[in-house]
Amino acid sequence: MSSDLLSQITASLVDGDPDVTVTVTKQALAAGIEPLAIIDGGLVPGMRLVGEKFSCGEYFLPNLIVAANGMKQAMQLLEPELRARQQTLKSPGTVVIGTVAGDIHEIGKSLVATMLAANGFEVHDLGVDVPIAKFVGTVREVGANLVGLSSLLTTTMVIQKKVIEALENAGLRGQVKVMVGGAPVSKKWAEEIGADGYAEDAVDAVNLARQLAHS
Ligand code: HCB
Predict the structure, then answer these.
(1) With the CA atoms of 11, 15, 16 and 19 taken in that order, what torsion angle do they form, in degrees rounded to the nearest 10?
(2) Farthest-apart Cα atoms in the chain, separation
(3) pTM here?
(4) What is 15-62 written as a DSSP string?
């Protein structure tokens, strides 16, 4: 019975049906399944499968967005239940993410933020056109171990380099890994500016974040 409900939750994410994800998550809670079991046995496997399908070209961006929304809505139901049981998710890391100063493109950055949150990271999304000092201040304030910098314009790519320099100058570079992304950004650029990694898309970003959080 419980494994059947968990399989249905996984399938609903893969099928891109957030309403079913929410309905079956409610049913699973009503059936007495622990929130952590619902996350680990239903939601996380679903997101993994969606990510794999995206990576091999079977799924596209809209599939990712719909699945991430389903996961987000289910988490909104589960988080109060976790708190009530004084259980917390073991977060793989704390991420500060934003689109750099001078750049207002937000879709890709928000997708990466949602996917990271859906995969258990504590995410502080600073939005778009984020001043360099805001990244530095928030990293210090929340004790982040990861920073995600998004740039969609060739003219704002250089701000990614400036954020890294500012983190260095603030004595915080030892505590944070920096990943960069955005349409004009590349692995070569990441290496050139001393970032710790480049992610091509949101799934890649989750994998990279996991890897960086453990390095
Ligand atoms: Co905009 N724009 N735009 N734009 N825009 C681009 C980016 C151009 C490439 C279009 C073109 O000319 N071909 C171009 C940039 C050229 C360049 O510099 N190389 C451009 C320009 C020039 C401009 C304006 C300057 C236009 C003007 O006003 N003259 C202006 C910029 C204003 C400013 O920022 N100061 C502008 C404005 C806009 C909007 C407002 C109309 C709109 C943004 C709406 C919004 O975000 N709320 C917009 C859009 C939508 C685009 C395009 C069409 C799509 C961008 C997008 O959302 N892609 C884009 C063309 C393109 O990129 N092909 C065009 C979809 C997302 C999912 O992909 O690459 O952003 P993504 O993110 C991926 C990936 O990069 C990675 O994961 C994401 C998810 O898979 N990733 C990260 C992203 N950030 C990451 C961070 C990490 O740490 C890790 C991974």
Answers:
(1) -60
(2) 56
(3) 0.84
(4) HT-HHHHHHHHHHHHHTT--HHHHIIIIIHHHHHHHHHHHHTTSS-HH
Asked whether residue 89 is domain-assigned, the answer is no
Q: Which of 84, 112, 132 represents a domain boundary (last residue)?
A: 84
The whole-angstrom distance between residue 155's C-alpha and the CA centroid of its chain comes to: 25
- 58 and 104: one domain? no
In whole angstroms, give the CA distance from residue 35 to residue 169. 42
Of the three residues 63, 84, 105, the one that is the final residue of a domain is: 84
Whether residue 58 is contained in a domain is answered as: yes
Q: How confident is the model at residue 120 (pLDDT cuts 50, 70, 90)?
A: confident
Counting atoms of ligand 1 from 1, which one is nearest the CA of 148? 88
What are phi and psi for residue 128, nearest 5 degrees? Answer: -115, 165
Q: How many domains does the chain have?
A: 2
Q: Which residues line ligand 1 (CB under 6 A)?
A: 61, 102-109, 111-112, 148-150, 152-155, 179-184, 199, 201-202, 205
Instruction: Using the structure block, give the residue that is written with the tokens 């982040």.
Output: 144
**Mean pLDDT, all residues of the chain:** 92
β pairing state of 146-150 and 177-181: parallel
Scored b (16 or more CB within 10 A) or e, 123-140 reads bbbbebbbbbebbbebbb
Q: What is the pLDDT of residue 89?
A: 65
Q: How far is the CA of 152 from the centre of ligand 1 (A)?
A: 5
pLDDT band per the 50, 70, 90 thresholds, residue 16: very high
pLDDT tens digits for 85-99? Answer: 766 667 889 999 999
